[in-house]
Amino acid sequence: MTEHKKLGLTARIVIGMLAGIIVGFFFKWLLAGQEERVLYFVGLDIPLKALFIDGFFHIGGEIFIASLKMLVVPLVFVSLVCGTCSLSDTSALGRLGGKTIGLYLITTALAISLAIFAALLFSPGEGVQMQSDANFNPSEAPALSQVFINIFPSNPIESMAKGNMLQIIVFAVLFGLAMAMSGKAGERLSAVFNDLSDVIMKLVTLLMNLAPYGVFFLMAKLFTTLGFETIASLAKYFGVVMLVLVLHGFLSYGVILKLLTGLNPLVFFRKMQDAALFGFSTSSSNATMPVTMETVTKKLGVKNSVASFTVPLGATINMDGTAIMQGVATVFIAQVFGVDLTPGDYLMVVLTATLASIGTAGVPGVGLIMLAMVLQQVGLPVEGIALIIGVDRLLDMTRTAVNVTGDAMVSCIVGKSEHAFDIKVFNDINAGTKEEDIDFHHLR
User: Between the CA of residue 65 and those of 62, 272, 281, 285, 411, what are the distances in Å?
Assistant: First the structure.
């Protein structure tokens, strides 16, 4: 008797995603114009929307997201402490930071330049006469001086409680350096942190095995409430953003990876499937960070000393997907309002969006705040953001998948340049896949 081959994690996540989309469409059709529709069951009137959409789907999705976010702070802190204290040369830390931040800024500038070029080529806002009842009041971005001040925590416990990633990174680096300088005491503590790191990564694996169910709940609720009428009215804008996201995510990253490392981009993209699907489902680089970290270290072969720094920093400041949205949105809004932008204005858009990716890191609603800053810089009405909010949810999902892929790509480049990269793991198609499966019936 032959034994059936167990489906891989990627296949299970895709099945959960597709099932959620189908169920979401079904409930959207079922509740069309009948928000208060009820289900008659054993003499009871059960409101479908309250039971399923606001009940099972909402609760299941929120628990899944909360579970992922639960791991972010301990994972970043423990991994970064382990990585920093293992550095034999402290000067490597400055080199590591310079390479990482430099690459993230370069890819962001490339992303927004590509977006502006595509938007000018396809002109998504020409001939569009749109009005929107939606209002957008952007939060004020912090001043540059305050950004640098806010990087350093006055209370690291409070920073962890609030999930302020830049402050956690700074404290973890300083703590790791202090451990490396503390002799025997540092070595004993290092062993404890290494054990903690192993346990946390196993917890990540446990949650990854539950991911298909969480993805199902998220997709089911999203596609029950998604308004495709708005997408149809903004089809050209939506299409241009999606096109640039796909081009940048595959072509730009693939070419950069090949030129700077010589690695096979096809192997890289194949191994990024799970992390990209997580990013697409959650729409959050921070929530996806545990999966990205496991993918980068276990499947791509980047050593923890590098990945523990590049991945959390990327989830905080690498916003290539957001930059693409800003580039296309700026041209779209300018065309809708009949404003002609000069080449100097477009250059200012590139510079503002690139630098703002660091300046607004960790600020809630960061994408729209950055876009408001860009529009103000070139004299466009900030109210124009209200026109595109309706289609931003689906685009946000794709942007996150691109951002997560960019984090991993930069990690590979920095890891290889720092000789902290295992080429055998990268080329092994099955690397890291065995760790994904947990037998919940036999824990030992």
Answer: 5, 20, 10, 11, 24
d(CA 302, CA 282): 24
Q: Which residues contact 188 (CB under 8 A, 6 or more apart)?
A: none
SS3 41: strand
The pLDDT value recorded for residue 127 is: 66
In terms of DSSP H, where are the helices of 32-90? 48, 58-85
**Residues contacting 116, CB < 8 A, separation 6+:** 327, 328, 330, 331, 346, 349, 350
- Tell me, what's the pLDDT at 366? 67
Q: Where are the alpha helices (DSSP H) in 181-252?
A: 183-225, 228-233, 235-246
User: Residue 411 has what pLDDT?
Assistant: 95
Spell out, as residue ranges, where the chain has pLDDT lower than 50. 1-4, 41-42, 132-134
Query: Quick one: angle between helices 9-30 and 183-225, nearest 10?
Result: 30
Does the reported pTM lie above 0.85?
no
- Tell which residue, 421, 398, 419, has the closest CA to residue 408: 421
Tokens linked to 133: 């009842």
Residue with tokens 């096109």: 243
> What pLDDT shows up at residue 319?
85
How long a stretch of residues is the chain?
444
Q: Return all residues near 217 (Cβ < 8 A) that are at least 6 apart.
A: 20, 56, 57, 58, 59, 60, 61, 64
Burial (CB < 10 A; 0-12, 13-18, 19+), residue 387, is buried
pLDDT at 365: 58
What is the three-class DSSP state of 46? strand
Residue type, 366: V
Nearest 5°: phi and psi at 45? -95, 110
**Class of the CATH domain delimited by 9-436:** mainly alpha
Q: Among residues 235, 385, 241, which one has the least CA distance to residue 327?
A: 241
Q: Which amino acid makes up residue 399?
A: R
Please tell me the predicted confidence (pLDDT) of residue 439: 60
**Cα 2 from chain centroid?**
41
Q: Is the dihedral of CA 286, 287, 292, 298 positive or negative?
A: positive
Nearest CA to 303 out of 25, 86, 136 is that of 86
CA 215 to chain centre: 15
State how far the Cα of 192 lies from the Cα of 190, in Å rounded to an integer: 5
